[in-house]
Design a protein that fits this description.
Blueprint (H helix, E strand, L loop, with lengths): L37 H10 L4 H5 L15 H13 L5 H10 L1 H7 L6 H10 L1 H17 L7 E10 L7 E2 L1 H23 L4 H38 L9 E2 L6 E4 L5 E12 L5 E7 L8 H12 L5 E3 L7 H9 L3 E3 L5 H6 L13 H9 L3 H6 L4 H13 L10 H24 L7
Parallel strand pairs: 1-7, 7-8
Antiparallel strand pairs: 1-5, 2-3, 4-5, 5-6
Length: 433
């Protein structure tokens, strides 16, 4: 056995990472997306949608002048997939289209920018509304969805406005005067002779000032609406009503944590069996008390039929709506309020009361039956489940302003929810052993 060598050992040699090395690689995006990847399902779904209205609005034609716009299917697919993945910012989506493989695959080499993405998201509210109707109607036609039993729930979503942006009449008028003075000065600055860069900068400032002045004018109008409602309720003098100069249509609402913040009230109607969202609305009312009737009317208009049974929580209880919907043949399941207090006084909470219409009396009696106790819990497992899914996809604060744009975002979430429900309902069922 030889003695160990006393010679010093050389330093080890190995390969190290060099991430700054520039190199050429030949590949296609198609190679890096698996055949069963969900992003392919999104694209396949978008290809089945009727987007003819978007194509009809394209001004660039074969043989004519103008730059080719982005294929509407790309923009639609990007926002649908972004909503599913919880991406709600156009700037973030823009960055993902440059770095994330799935979004790059959807783009297919077509460059996009955040401004185009932002505009597309909120410009086509009517189309999104129609696509919701068409999608649900298609699922109804093949038996995946029925309007037999529908549940409604509302959720208050934080608005893109700060509490400090709310002002009373005097403050709003003062801000409007300041904005108009600033706008007049900027118009003079824009008219002054200067370089192209200075003119562009002046035009941008003037445009921003015009938008601010317009928002303040809208805030004054909205404040008057709030004042009128406050006078109707006889709570306070109308002069104390306030409105936001950032998002005039937002209202201060009581949120789920008990705090008060600027918000919008998103209403979803969901089937209890298939858990598909069949109706969407956005209002700036802080309560759900008058939202059940309009949603039922919306469903009738969308699908030419009304639900057989309708479930909602206690916040929706409004006797006039119970009378109207009950007379229309809808079986309502809403909790009877103050049950414990009535029992403590020896009163049956489900017994008809003096002055009840036949529909209200039938509702009270119905809610005391064993069948109602079995049916009503389905509201939480359907309507609240849909709301929770939207929350998990990022619907916790709107980044857009105004009821029209806010409704567009709510419709994107409804379409994303229904797309995932459709995939679940049509997925092959496992064969039992």
């Amino acid at each position: 056995m030889s003695a160990p060598s006393s010679a010093p050992r050389c330093a080890p040699r190995f390969k190290i990472a060099n991430r700054s090395q520039t190199e050429w690689r030949f590949f296609s995006l198609e190679e890096f997306v698996a055949a069963d990847d969900p992003v392919r399902a999104v694209w396949a779904f978008v290809e089945t949608q009727d987007l003819s209205r978007l194509y009809d609005s394209i001004l660039a034609v074969e043989g004519g002048p103008g730059r080719d716009p982005i294929d509407p299917k790309i923009l639609f697919a990007l926002w649908l997939y972004a909503t599913i993945e919880g991406v709600g910012s156009a700037r973030r989506l823009d960055r993902l289209c440059e770095k994330h493989l799935h979004f790059m695959w959807l783009c297919g080499g077509v460059p996009v920018n955040y401004h185009t993405l932002s505009d597309f998201r909120t410009e086509h509210v009517d189309l999104l509304d129609e696509l919701l109707t068409q999608g649900v109607a298609a699922m109804m036609q093949v038996g995946l969805v029925e309007l037999k039993r529908v549940a409604q729930d509302g959720m208050r979503v934080r608005a893109s406005a700060g509490s400090s942006s709310f002002g009373r009449e005097r403050k709003l008028q003062e801000c409007l005067e300041e904005a108009e003075v600033q706008l007049a000065a900027l118009k003079q600055e824009e008219a002054a002779d200067g370089g192209a860069e200075n003119r562009r900068e002046a035009a941008a400032k003037k445009n921003a000032a015009e938008q601010r002045a317009e928002r303040i004018r809208r805030a004054i109008v909205e404040r008057e609406k709030v004042a009128a409602k406050m006078e109707e309720r006889k709570k306070e003098s109308g002069t104390k009503a306030r409105a936001s100069m950032t998002d005039p249509e937002a209202r201060v609402m009581k949120m789920g944590d008990g705090g008060f913040r600027p918000a919008h009230n998103v209403q979803f109607a969901t089937t209890t069996d298939s858990l598909v969202i069949v109706g969407v609305d956005v209002v700036n009312a802080g309560t759900d008390g008058s939202q059940m009737g309009p949603m039922v009317d919306q469903l009738q208009k969308r699908y030419q039929q009304q639900p057989e049974e309708y479930l909602a929580d206690g916040g929706f209880v409004k006797l006039s709506e119970i009378t109207r919907l009950g007379a229309a043949g809808i079986t309502l399941y809403l909790p009877v309020m103050e049950q414990a207090q009535k029992r403590a006084k020896g009163i049956d909470p489900f017994a008809p009361m003096k002055g009840d219409t036949p529909q209200i009396a039938a509702w009270r009696q119905r809610m005391g039956t064993p069948a109602a106790k079995e049916i009503y819990p389905q509201r939480a497992s359907s309507a609240e489940l849909a709301n929770a899914g939207c929350r998990n996809r990022g619907l916790v604060q709107f980044l857009v302003r105004g009821l029209e744009k806010v409704k567009a975002v709510a419709l994107w979430h409804a379409l994303a929810h229904n797309f995932q429900r459709f995939r679940h309902l049509t997925a092959p069922q496992p064969v039992p052993n």
